[in-house]
Design a protein that fits this description.
The structure holds two protein chains of two kinds. Chain A is of the alpha+beta class. Helices cover about 55% and strands about 20% of the residues of chain A. Chain A folds into four domains: about 140 residues, Sandwich (Jelly Rolls), CATH 2.60.120.260; about 220 residues; about 100 residues; about 130 residues, Histidine kinase-like ATPase, C-terminal domain (Heat Shock Protein 90, 2-Layer Sandwich), CATH 3.30.565. In chain A, the strands form four sheets. In chain A, strands 3-2-5-11-8-9 form a six-stranded antiparallel sheet, with no helix packed on it. Chain A has a five-stranded mixed sheet with strand order 14-15-16-18-17, covered by helices on one side. A four-stranded antiparallel sheet of chain A has the order 1-13-6-10, covered by helices on one side. In chain A, α12 links the parallel β14 and β15. In chain A, α10 runs antiparallel to α12. The radius of gyration of chain A is 55 Å and the shape is rod-shaped. The relative contact order of chain A is 0.06. Chain B has one domain. Chain B contains six helices and no strands. The radius of gyration of chain B is 17 Å and the shape is globular. Classes of the chains: A alpha+beta, B mainly alpha. At the A-B interface, α10, α11 and β14 of A face α3 and α4 of B.
């Protein structure tokens, strides 16, 4: 591991809240890296060979499974150390058995059966009983390996337990705690992104593009990465080897594909021709990952998988170069961030590819497990900027809306004022018209009659006087009706009696007055009151002129919510079947105009006009 | 002659006890004068309505102001029950004779009620004038 690589790792770990600074192995601890090896590859002859550690089975015995035994001799100055000793092994397996001076210290996994649990995932630390140690010691390590499962034996460290524990914990945190963190983080980010994808629906576009694929790809990528990294934590997988070996490869393939799509969508690059070609190519690689991984592991052709990794790496080098070049040209910070994240991942991927697939070293941990975290951060940045933009937009929209509502309100108010003025004007002109009509029909016609009477020269003075009195009465009634309280029928009748009572009495007609005090009928406006006045006036004048009656009784009683007005005389009556006089037809029309029911009943000796007014 | 209830009311408040329209027939004018001399006061339903309204508002104002500032005049019962009934009947168009019949009294009693009403209105306005004048310091200090 180069110095720079270590620095990056340390930086990453500090960033993830991990351990303190990296330190070289303390001198009190012995590093054991030379062993006498005895190798039993399946289907081949046993080999005896002195070997240096670490020993990567997949490099030296590519494509095979089998077992090996290492004998490591080491001297010790002290016969019985006065502090507890510890043995720290960064990586060994897949199954293993450790003996010290012939005494079994630890055994994990089945030594005689292939394809089971994998105990090479985590570093090991074993307490060594001080009694076991002598001046010359022999460590016997037996391992059983599955093909392509990164079996082997790393260098070993033995020394005071306090020191070895520190080394072990450092490695443990890097590989296990870090993986738990990354897997958890990725799963959280992935689920959040999927929830965003599911819930953020743009209803303004067609059904096909309503959901933003950016979130879908980011979510799937993060979930896949969580699976890939979480593999370290699973010693006993649910599937046997080599089937289980396909899972992390496929997870990584889906991750690479989804990540490339995420990057393209984030940089709005997904619709261009080059991007479409790259998408197809990376998609094809992702499709091939499963079968190729299975061939490599089950049919013992590790080169196939190496080639696949190489193609992936090469594709992403091209993709990354194009993407970064493009994002640098455009001044978008979110897309620059993503370009940076991609470059970092490609570099780390290249390192891991070299370390795991080409170099004979036996690395205990991949760097790659940490680097995709920056994509999660980039996604977070992306989401935050998006939501900021969206909320700014909605604020703008709200302000705009409020301004428009205020504008409309003002316009409405102005139009109200205009409509009110119009209505007032209309009411005035209606009133004027109705007064003019009253003048014309009432006073005007009487005065014309008076003029004709004078011109004819045959009219008697008392006839002329009567006509003029009538005209004055009309005028009074017209003016009175303007002062009547709206809808007050009782006041109207009282007023009529006051004005016309003397004339009726002078004609020998006695009024029987039975009027209850009733509340006004609000629905009758000034116009309706005038109509009502005309109806009663007409009845009075009919009684006066034609009936030859000597009693006229006026009755007003409450009827339901309205009232009933009865005007009955004891005159000679008339046949109501006869074609109606103009006056009677006029009565019906006026009653109809104010929504009243008019009924007339007449027999000799009694004529009754009944008017029902509803509230 | 018409639409002049305001003037009539003002005249009554100023102390008039009756009024005759200018369009009245000569014999009617004579009758009215004779009736007034005999103690009658004419009143139209419109005027009755206005008088009624006026007394009602005065009553309310009095009810509101009474507890704190008792007015100088003895106007506590502004309108007797019987007077109010008479006013209401006139407003409903009943004749003096009709009212007399309803209440089982003579026409003369009804006319007396009306005359009393007129007086109350006049007294009330005169009292107000004195009260206002006192408030403004227009009247002497009793010398």
């Amino acid at each position: 591991m180069s110095m720079r690589g270590r620095l990056i790792l340390v930086w990453l770990f500090l960033a993830l809240g991990g351990l303190q600074s990296w330190a070289a192995a303390p001198s009190a601890v012995l590093r054991l890296d030379s062993a006498a090896g005895e190798f039993h590859p399946e289907g081949a002859a046993t080999v005896h060979r002195q070997t240096t550690l670490p020993y990567a089975w997949d490099y030296w015995r590519a494509g095979t499974q089998g077992s090996a035994q290492f004998e490591i001799s080491f001297p010790l100055n002290q016969l019985y150390p006065d502090v507890p000793y510890g043995l720290y092994i960064p990586r060994l397996g897949n199954a293993y058995e450790i003996k010290l001076n012939g005494m079994l210290l630890q055994r994990r996994g089945a030594m005689d059966r292939a394809g089971g649990a994998d105990f090479a995932q985590q570093p090991r630390h074993i307490l060594v009983p001080p009694d076991l140690l002598t001046h010359a010691n022999v460590l016997q390590v037996r391992i059983r390996t599955d093909a392509g499962r990164r079996g082997g034996l790393s260098e070993l460290y033995i020394g005071p337990e306090t020191e070895t524990t520190k080394m072990y914990l450092r490695a443990y945190h890097l590989r296990v705690t870090g993986s738990v963190f990354v897997a958890g983080f990725s799963l959280f980010v992935g689920l959040m992104a999927l929830i965003l994808w599911f819930t953020q629906i743009d209803t303004s576009v067609s059904a096909k593009t309503r959901r933003d694929p950016l979130y879908l790809f980011a979510g799937l990528a993060e979930v896949c990465w969580s699976t890939r990294v979480g593999d370290v934590l699973i010693e006993s997988p649910p599937l046997p080897w080599p089937q289980w070996g396909v899972v992390p490869v496929v997870a990584m393939a889906i991750w690479t594909f989804c990540m490339s799509q995420f990057c393209m969508h984030a940089a709005s690059w997904s619709n261009q021709r080059g991007a479409v070609l790259l998408t197809r190519w990376i998609g094809l690689l992702a499709w091939l990952s499963g079968p190729l991984a299975y061939i490599a592991l089950a049919y013992q052709r590790p080169l196939v998988l190496t080639l696949w990794y190489a193609l992936e790496l090469a594709s992403f080098v091209v993709f990354g170069a194009l993407f970064v070049a493009r994002s640098m040209r455009r001044a978008q910070w979110s897309s620059r961030w993503i370009g940076f994240a991609m470059l970092l991942n490609i570099a780390v991927g290249a390192h891991d590819f070299y370390a795991f697939r080409i170099d004979p070293s036996y690395p205990d941990n991949s760097w790659m497990r940490y680097s995709p975290t920056v994509f999660g951060l980039a996604l977070g940045y992306f989401v935050v900027t998006r939501f900021r933009a969206a909320s700014a937009q909605s604020r703008d929209l709200l302000a705009n809306l409020a301004a428009r509502v205020a504008e409309r309100e003002l316009a409405l108010q102005e139009s109200y004022v205009r409509v009110e003025a119009l209505a007032r004007e209309q009411a005035r002109s209606l009133e004027r018209a109705s007064i003019l009509r009253d003048m014309h029909d009432g006073v005007g016609s009487h005065i014309s009659s008076a003029i004709r009477q004078v011109q004819s020269g045959v009219a008697q003075p008392d006839q002329l006087l009567q006509t003029l009195r009538d005209s004055l009465d009309q005028l009074k009634l017209t003016v009175d009706s303007m002062h009547l309280p709206a809808g007050d029928v009782v006041a109207l009748l009282a007023n009529l009696r006051y004005r016309l009572g003397p004339r009726l009495e002078s004609s020998g007609i006695t009024l029987h007055w039975d009027v209850d005090l009733l509340p006004p009928l609000e629905r009758l406006d000034a116009q309706a009151m005038r109509q009502l006045q005309f109806i009663v006036l007409e009845v009075f004048s009919n009684t006066l002129q034609h009936s030859m009656a000597d009693i006229l009784s006026i009755t007003v009683k409450a009827q339901g919510s309205g009232l009933r007005l009865c005007m009955t005389d004891n005159g000679k009556g008339f046949d109501i079947q006869e074609p109606w006089h103009k006056g009677l037809t006029g009565l019906q029309e006026r009653a109809c105009a104010i929504g009243a029911q008019l009924s007339i009943a007449s027999i000799p000796g009694q004529t009754a006009v009944t008017l029902d007014l509803e509230r | 002659m018409f639409g002049d209830e305001d003037n009539v009311l003002k005249s009554i408040e100023a102390g008039a006890l009756g009024y005759i329209h200018k369009d009245a027939a000569p014999h009617n004018i004579a009758t009215s004068i004779l009736e007034m001399k005999a103690g009658a006061s004419p009143i139209s339903p419109m005027i009755a309505r206005r008088v009624l309204a006026k007394f009602l508002t005065l009553n309310q104002a009095h009810a509101v102001s009474a507890p704190t500032t008792p007015l100088p005049m003895s106007i506590r019962p502004l309108l007797s029950v019987r007077e109010q009934e008479v006013l209401e009947l006139i407003a409903r168009g009943f004749s003096y004779a009709g009212i007399a019949k309803l209440h089982g009294v003579t026409v003369h009693t009804v006319q007396t009620h009306i005359k009393n009403l007129y007086r109350k209105l006049a007294v009330r306005s005169r009292g107000e004038a004195v009260y206002e004048a006192t408030q403004l310091g227009l009247l002497g200090t009793g010398r």
